[in-house]
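re: ur question from earlier - yeah i can do the single chain one, its not a big deal. heres the input i used so u can compare w yours
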Amino acid sequence: MSTSSGVKLLGLSGSIRKASTNTIILRSLAERLDGKASMTVFPLNEVPIYNGDLDGENAPEAVRALKAAITEADGLVLCSPEYNHGMPGMLKNALDWASRPVGASPLKNKPVLLMTSSPGYVGGARAHAQMQETLASTQSRVVPRAQVVIAGVAQKIADGKLADATTIDFCLQAIDDLLTEIRRLATA
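and the output i got, formated as tokens:
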């Protein structure tokens, strides 16, 4: 775990849109951590489609940067939309890159908090399930808790920030659960 600067979290947004509500959620939460932790949002825009020929020593710079950021983080916060009942291919692609080498990847034993959002009433629950399944295969430690699914997300964003107090509180409680898991692992 990080030293005096606190716990380092890495946020990965499942959307690369300029006005992505998922990126807005991550940035809004990062501003509200009150010194308990810091969170950096890593952009996935430059991560190329997975190609096993480029894996390992030949990995593209964006992939090396992603893996380094995951390695340096004490925990991850993934926030994703739901596309056709699943996580976006871009997020799955980033997780595929980060899952290498099998059994010794930067995702192995990494505490991860999952969040999804959607304009619909299900809040991205199906994408949430798909992310959990993918991360189980990477041997990540998905925080066991009630799903963080944010339904009707467009109505919860105002002036480029997550503005719904109930949603903010629920998300911050989830981050507290992630921080508890990080501390538990650090002392085990």
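Strands lie at 7-13, 37-42, 75-80, 111-117, 141-142, 148-150, 157-158, 161-162. not sure if urs matches, ping me
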